[in-house]
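Inputs:
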Amino acid sequence: MKTVTLKINGTEHTAEVSPRTLLVHLIRENFSMTGTHIGCDTSSCGACTILIDGKSAKSCTILAVQADGTEIITVEGLATAEGLHPIQEGFHLNHALHCGFCTAGVMLRAVELLEKNPNPTEEEIRWGISGNLCRCTGYNNIVKAIQWASAKMQGKELPSTEPVFV
Amino acid sequence: MGNYIGKSVKRVEDKRFLTGKGQYTDDIVLHQQTYASIVRSPYAHANIESIDTSAAEKAVGVVAVFTGKDFADSGIAGVPCGWQVNFKNGDIMKEPPHPLLVADKVKHLGDAVAIVIAESKEIARDAAELVDVSYDVLDSVVDPKKAAQPGAPLVHEDCPNNICFDWELGNPKSDVNAAIEASHHVTTLEFVNQRVIPNAMEPRAAIGDYQAAGDKYTLYTSSQNPHLIRLLLCAFVLNLPEHKVRVVSPDVGGGFGSKIFHYTEEALVIWCSKQIGRPVKWTSDRSEAFITDAHGRDHVTKADMGFDADGKITALRVETYANLGAYLSTFAPAVPTYLHGTLLQGLYTTPVINVDVTAVFTHTTAVDAYRGAGRPEATYLLERMIDLAALEMEMDPAELRFKNFIPAFDGVEQEGYMTQVALQYDSGDYDPVLKKALDMVGYDDFRAKQSALDNGKLIGIGFSTYIEACGIAPSAVVGALGARAGLFESAQVRVQPTGKVSVYTGSHSHGQGHETTFAQVVADRMGIPLDDVEIVHGDSESVAFGMGTYGSRSLAVGGSAIVKSIDKVLEKGAKIAAHLLEANADDLDYAGGKWTVKGTDKSIAFGDVSLTAYVPHNYPEGLEPGLDFSSFYDPANFTYPFGAHIAIVEIDKSTGKVELQRFIAVDDVGNVINPMIVDGQIHGGLAQGIGQALFEGAIYDDNGQLINGSYMDYCMPRADDLPSFEIDRTVTPCPHNPLGVKGAGEAGTIGSTPAVVNAVIDALWSGGHKVKDVKMPMTPERVWSAMQSDQA
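Outputs:
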């Protein structure tokens, strides 16, 4: 067993893990943060995407021991006391999620995408999230949501998203 | 009416998913929970010579190991089929058992032979590898047409030629043959509607929890219909007392049909939990999902469509071999028959139709309903035939459709349209959807551009005008057709004393947004704020009964049941209000959340009436307290959404790569409660239908190995494979349900596949490559080969 210590969403966590434990299992099972999902076993679907030291990564492809000493953001850490992160708001207002299973991974991938390229074209967005599979939305509204978040984060005029009641 | 219906209300369920607080089955951890790993056959067809579990049983942390032998004297035969389709000659459908664990002979890759239960999932998986199974490998067959030939390896010894049943519908074959013979032109096509894999992003999971103290069983399962699972589990598999069994389907990460069915693992975890006295969790990994989730489509078809000199369709003749896989999944027999043959009228006035289906077992994973279920296969057939006929007859494919469309009928003033294949369409107006789509695409400009193109590319346009049968379904009708269940829906509207409303629906949301759409209906009908409504689903202990969500039925059937209960609430509420207002109930109007005495300003609010119902001090004599009603709604007919889809593709002549440049969809799904959610359903459906045309397809080799059983190999559409969709709608209300809705879940998938394939064929013909077919998925290699084999 190995001891790993890492910071998740600003809080330090320590656990004893076997060397083969995957980071996604550590997060889901040892730390009971189940917002990060497992959709495949070949690092192809991106449902387990998190941010490690600011970079998006598929947490099913990383051993827990490799993440020792890192700072991690999961979907549980996106919102702040002030409210939802612009990407969460964009997903909500643009109906970019149906079943919600891929959503955490796509949002975290998009956070890094917008960090590096604050004003991406549709083509850049589509390429940028092509490592994440969604079976529900056809990606149409995910693209719109990322465009919306891009506008919001840059203080630009926001595309209309029709009435909001809740 | 009110404030909410028809508006893009943002989803109330979003917040938990956006913040990582959704609760899917694998997220649930029960006290003392154990973990199961299932030992599966690496062969498609083999006799089991021996199973040695001793090493696995000895491994540290292993709690128990069970094999098929443990069921030998239990009376547990396996999971049942929910639909019976008999042979043409009246013989009963072949219905071989589907055991929970196989003891003697495995029949497809992934067939379950043992289950290992341990303290952790890692220990369970390690120990599963210690189970030593000795197999005697046998020949297998994976193609349905080959499987039906004499001498093919048998999947089940008592099913000669692997035939489960044969089936015919429509006009007498002799009439259809004569009409084809007499036709001016006959378009003939032999094609494969390939097997695809649903691939909901959440792999299936199940937790069985038996509590001996109360003799109570709880099953958590990622299902589209928890009550149906409970019924099948109790009455047909484990013989359990239904009132002692609770089935919960919490948040479910997509279904697309694949989570309708009652799977062996659901019964296994419950049975195992009782054996060991602890909860047992099984979570599929993706590789396991590829070989155990029911697959979709897999038809091999030959069709002939006759035309007169003017282009009017004279007859349609269809012969299909439908692959059922190794076992009969829950609704498998209905898919190639009553959900496929019955849709072959399409939107056209075809006077005679005959469809002949042979349903066949093969050494492959079971095939059952996948988004659209039978209707995509029917639409693919019809729409490929029409576009091909237009090319062959040098007619315009849009004009050919207009010439053959059934004239408009609203189902009220004009009767529903009676088809040659047993259905009566409810309402339809088909010209406008195609006209609108043609306007959106700029059709005339496209043809000019196509003929002028000279850049190493070919461009093509493909059409698809479809109809589907949704809102499944009138119980007596489906019962007569072989369904072993009713297909009604239930809903309870419970008004709380404070006027807040809890609605318990038997529909199940796994992405469809019922918690929002249903709440819009309730809030508007009751004149109360949306925030005052809570939609509860997915738990057999809180929801009285339910038939679940599939076949685009939730709003048309489940929503109608809710409306019935609301009507009962308001009727009783009016009696209480009349008493309090000292008026006659007939003299009251209900609007804006209050009852008003007509012609006066005397009124009483819904909340006051609710409180009075539970504090009945000043109360109508003889009226029961409470304000809480349940209803069951059994639809009068199916609903019939329709639409027109147009694809524009570009082919790179040097590589054969197809790029989908534009996709236009105009759908008519009846009245729309939430346009945003309906659009989202269309988008997702389109991606799956386009996926089948260009990317997806299960590939079995002759040994029954699924050689593309992972996301590395099975090509799911990704964001950069698709354009943004251009969608619009027309509205032709359903005349027979109270909301006038038809259903939107499957339209995108049903319409889109042939539009894309037709566009590729059109592009090829524009370059002089007059091929009739390119097999799906239309990979660069296949398209390139088509261009080489038939050089201009």
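Remarks. Chain B touches chain A through 65 residues (CB under 8 Å). Chain B has 19 helices and 26 strands.
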